[in-house]
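Hello Y.,

Per our agreement to keep a running log of every chain we model this quarter, I'm adding this entry. I've kept the format consistent with earlier entries: sequence first, then predicted structure.
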Amino acid sequence: MTTKSSVGKANILALGKAFPHQLVMQDLLVEGYFKDTNCDDPELKQKLSRLCKTTCVKTRYVVMSQEILEKYPELALEGLPTVRQRLEIANKAVTQMAIEASQACIKKWARPISDITHLVYVSSSEARLPGGDIYLAKGLGLSPNTNRVLLYFSGCSGGVAGLRVAKDIAENNPGSRVLLATAETTIVGYKPPNVNRPYDLVGVALFGDGAGAMLIGSDPTGPESPLFELHTAIQNFLPDTEKVIDGRLSEEGISFRLDRDLPEIIEDNVKGFCDKLMGYYGPNEMAYNDLFWAVHPGGPAILNKLEKKLDLLPDKLNASRKALADYGNASSNTIVYVLEYLIEEGLKRKKEGKDGGPDLGLILAFGPGVTFEGILTKNLTV
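Predicted structure for the entry above:
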């Protein structure tokens, strides 16, 4: 009788990202958006101008371009059935971005692509059968024996949900290496401004496009340089909050509506969730400011509420705020950008002769449900 060899905790072994070619400067967004949609409503324009300032976003990448609007002018018109055109554009775009982010990640990982055993693909920006996981596997040249998991429409918590799934796979399959890829585009929800849908302008001011990738595996070997050790992952949903983040697919594309109470709902529940997650590490008394924080930046209000509720020092959410400023809320992708900035911060401090920062911390994201995703994590780069 043989005994099963123990498998260590899963590690993030590499990170990668990719973006479409269109870079949008927040300062120029309002005029461009109203020109492209042939709208001249001064009140809506003023409202969007205010939102662009309060979101703290400075730049974003988007798939939408003048070429696309010239080919599909109906996307800028109200009430037309355009879901077919939107998905035609989105399916191609997210696949290309996911391929590029994965290739960047695999290059940093420095092992052959044939060593990838599992693929987890996350997106809330496409809908097709077979799913984007097949097209990504084909585009990368993955083995047909690669085991795939597809997570659709998990929204902003999708990246951390995918990381939780990848962690479980890695720790239950000795020797496995899991590629996690996320890809999102706002083109599926692009609409002209409308006085009856003022909440649409929040998305116009906040969301961006892009892709992210991670390589996850236990017991690093050879050229692998682990970045984070994933200790414990949990998920909770809040009963009777399913309408707080409301997304619907219709003939006109995907529409999202965020309840204005979302930041307060997160504020009211985040402490208990974090305490539960921290409790898995042991009975020692850990203060919130003794940890690093990799939080999906759903928006400045969410970050501000979390910072206030947990009495965090101002620099604790620097990586999240920088990712929001540089890329906007790119849905499931954004946690990759936050983790990259977190590593950069630590390396910069060490280069200056300072302490690299806390080695223990939390990866957090909030999505439809309302769903909380969290992973207790050790930063191996500090």
